[in-house]
Design a protein that fits this description.
The protein has helices spanning 31-39, 52-73, 82-85, 90-102, 105-112, 120-128, 168-172, 206-223, 233-244, and strands at 2-5, 18-21, 26-29, 133-142, 147-151, 157-161, 178-187, 190-193, 196-199, 225-226. The chain is 41% helix and 21% strand. The chain is an alpha+beta fold. Strands 1, 2, 3, 4, 5, 6, 7, 8, 9 and 10 form a ten-stranded mixed sheet that branches. The chain has a domain at 131-244. It is globular, with a radius of gyration of 19 Å.
């Protein structure tokens, strides 16, 4: 099952809502529920996501890059422009993103062509996506400014991630933690995700939840909450060591 932000995607593009899709079929959509949530939204959670203007900018740039990749590899037939992608099922778009993340050099190739319709600042944002972080994360905690994505590798790291059109609690509910596969992207000195979450249906017992909290505390103690990319563990640890000298 895939949770995906469908802002301008597929058959629900006019609603700008998220959908839940299986690998091959549309399971259900939440247009009414999301509309209700939007109307009753608590203003204190507004900082947990990008502004509407930045969401529009993200999709403009992201679709431009994906359209370029699609033209190079002819993945989705008949798709040549960013606007064409807005009518594509998320399963088709995933095929394009999979190639992009396997071959990040495509980002440099795209930027090198300096598309005339994009500014230098916009190209700089796209170029920064070479520093994406792809993997399995634990959506661990909702904070006022962002949602914590916890990387449970041998060296735990906690990322402060902003949502796009809807906050993560609107999409996923209040019952945390949730294990997901995701791609994190830098965006204007913040961290966002690429609009697609692939969750695991796992229930965690009290013992493993305790270990998650230990990992979170270790990550915060060692690196702080990471709020921009790229991130250098060595530089972060060196900075902490420098602080202890004074």
């Amino acid at each position: 099952m895939k949770f995906s932000m469908a802002y301008g995607m597929g058959m629900l593009k006019s609603h700008g809502i998220f959908v839940i899709t299986d690998d091959n079929i549309l399971v259900l959509w939440y247009s009414i529920i999301v509309t209700d949530l939007t109307q009753k939204k608590d203003k204190r959670w507004e900082k947990m996501k990008l502004s509407k203007e930045d969401v529009e900018l993200f999709y403009k740039l992201y679709y431009s890059l994906l359209a370029y990749v699609n033209r190079k590899f002819d993945i989705i037939k008949g798709i040549n422009s960013p606007e064409d992608l807005r009518g594509c099922p998320i399963e088709e778009i995933n095929k394009v993103t999979n190639i992009l993340y396997r071959q990040p050099r495509l980002i440099d190739l795209f930027v090198a062509e300096e598309p005339s319709n994009l500014s230098s600042d916009e190209l700089s944002i796209i170029s920064s996506w070479k520093n994406f972080v792809m993997g399995r994360f634990l959506i661990f905690r909702y904070l006022k400014k962002y949602t914590i994505f916890l990387d449970l590798s041998n060296t735990p790291k906690a990322y402060g991630v902003l949502a796009l059109t809807f906050t993560f609690d609107e999409m996923l509910g209040q019952s945390l933690p949730i294990m997901v596969e995701a791609v994190l992207l830098p965006f204007k000195n913040k961290i966002i995700y690429d609009g697609i979450l692939i969750p695991y249906r796992i229930t965690f017992g009290s013992g493993i939840r305790h270990s998650f909290n230990d990992a979170y505390q270790e990550a915060k103690s060692r690196f702080g909450i990471i709020t921009s990319l790229p991130f250098s563990p060595e530089r972060a640890e060196q900075s902490d060591a420098d602080k202890l000298r004074f």
